[in-house]
């Protein structure tokens, strides 16, 4: 019997960190080869699901382990230390599990709890590229003759290529028979293996290359009407939670940088004549650099834990919508995750660069793939641009201005993309 088949009353009693440690170690062993061969971690994702990773937040009575977000985030950091792609693969799933936990008791919630408990995975499909206007969606949900379907094209669909479902945003006409000309933004849970679904591994970023962050095409894909809901019904702290996962990735990368730096320095027998010791491991200048890397890794994990505590506080007040306590908790969750992002977006890529100051030119060997740490950290730091988070945190600190809880990217309604391109072509 696999772990995913165990009844709730027979779940392992060991601490999750202890139970997952051997699995994380096996995942870490193959990470360099996977990246060099561009081998998507399909087997590793399925092994994590079989071990119950996707259901850790579910209550014990519903087949999970009832971890709070602090405990779960600690595990995400450990997983990111082994392979920084994998927590990001699970990012959409983590958010959907949180949404399911926020649903009222009923058939819809029970159905999704059962799917999560048996190891089904949910990906993400919110982003679109091209000239779409901000605040709108080009992907469309329609209902005709009692059949509800989704059509559109998505990009940055992290995790979807590994998943059973994808959580897609779309627009849906409002009014009787959609005749009033209006629309609302909705989310739709789309079965990835259904007819009309195509997923491509065409993410061309220089980092986080194995997250499956590519294109999703939906061609009149039938969905369950119960799985389509207004975007406004999402749990309020979702943006902070999405950012928390990325922070955990950064902390894991920092830990991996410290691990790999130590291993490389200890193994070196060659040293420079103008160095400070016959062995690099005893060179005070090198050790000083390693000390800075270690301090960054420690700080990263501490910041992520503090951010997780703030997000957990928002989860704790989710049953009190509209109250001052809930508003305050959500504001703090957003601010704490933004503060951590501001720090880690600079310090972790710097640590990944400092690694090379402890080694000779051999450290740049492609076979060692040590540059992946900087590429991955820099790529993660590019999500949700940090310069805007700096301003938001500063505005809160000085003026008490509440942060935005949801934002979008696209072409501003006042901009004519064709005119911009024409102007550039004349330069």
TrEMBL record:
Pfam family membership, one: Acyl-CoA_dh_N
Superkingdom of the organism of origin: Bacteria
Keyword Oxidoreductase belongs to the record: yes
Keywords of the record: Oxidoreductase
InterPro entries per record: Acyl-CoA_DH_C, Acyl-CoA_Oxase/DH_mid-dom_sf, AcylCo_DH-like_C, AcylCoA_DH/ox_N, AcylCoA_DH/ox_N_sf, AcylCoA_DH/oxidase_NM_dom_sf
NADP found in the keyword field: no
Residue span(s) of domain Acyl-CoA dehydrogenase C-terminal: 247-384
Residues in Acyl-CoA dehydrogenase/oxidase N-terminal domain copies: 27-120
Protein name in UniProt: Acyl-CoA dehydrogenase family protein
């Amino acid at each position: 019997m696999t772990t995913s088949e165990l009844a709730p009353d027979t779940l392992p009693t060991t601490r999750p960190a202890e139970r997952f440690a051997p699995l994380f170690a096996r995942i870490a062993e193959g990470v360099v080869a996977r990246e060099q061969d561009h081998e998507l971690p399909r087997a590793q994702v399925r092994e994590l699901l079989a071990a119950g990773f996707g259901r850790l937040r579910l209550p014990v009575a519903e087949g999970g382990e009832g971890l709070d977000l602090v405990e779960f985030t600690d595990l995400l950091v450990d997983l990111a230390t082994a392979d920084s792609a994998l927590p990001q693969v699970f990012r959409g799933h983590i958010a959907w599990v949180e949404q399911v936990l926020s649903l009222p008791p009923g058939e819809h919630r029970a159905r999704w709890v059962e799917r999560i408990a048996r190891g089904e995975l949910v990906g993400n499909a919110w982003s679109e590229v091209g000239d779409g206007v901000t605040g709108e969606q080009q992907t469309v949900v329609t209902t005709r003759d009692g059949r509800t379907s989704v059509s559109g094209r998505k990009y940055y669909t992290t995790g979807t290529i590994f998943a059973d479902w994808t959580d897609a945003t779309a627009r849906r006409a409002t009014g009787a028979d959609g005749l009033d000309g209006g629309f609302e933004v909705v989310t739709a849970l789309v079965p990835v293996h259904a007819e009309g679904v195509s997923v491509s591994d065409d993410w061309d970023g220089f980092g986080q290359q194995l997250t499956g962050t590519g294109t999703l095409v939906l061609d009149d894909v039938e969905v369950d009407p119960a799985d389509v809901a207004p975007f406004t019904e999402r749990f309020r702290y979702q943006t902070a939670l999405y950012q928390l996962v990325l922070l955990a990735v950064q902390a894991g990368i920092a830990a991996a940088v410290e691990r790999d730096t130590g291993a490389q320095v200890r193994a070196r027998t060659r040293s420079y004549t103008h160095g400070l010791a016959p062995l690099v491991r005893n060179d005070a200048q090198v050790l000083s650099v390693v000390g800075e890397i270690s301090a960054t890794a420690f700080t990263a994990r501490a910041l992520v834990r503090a951010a997780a505590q703030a997000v957990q506080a928002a989860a704790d007040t989710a049953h009190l919508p509209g109250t001052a306590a809930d508003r305050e908790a959500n504001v703090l969750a957003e601010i704490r995750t933004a503060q951590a992002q501001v720090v880690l977006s600079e310090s972790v890529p710097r640590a990944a660069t400092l690694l090379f100051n402890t080694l000779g030119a051999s450290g740049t060997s492609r076979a060692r793939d040590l540059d992946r740490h900087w590429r991955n950290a820099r790529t993660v730091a590019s999500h949700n641009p940090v310069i805007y988070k700096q301003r938001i945190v500063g505005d809160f600190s000085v003026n008490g201005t509440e942060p935005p809880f949801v934002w979008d990217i696209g072409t501003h309604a006042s901009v004519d993309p064709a005119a911009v391109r024409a102007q550039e072509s004349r330069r």
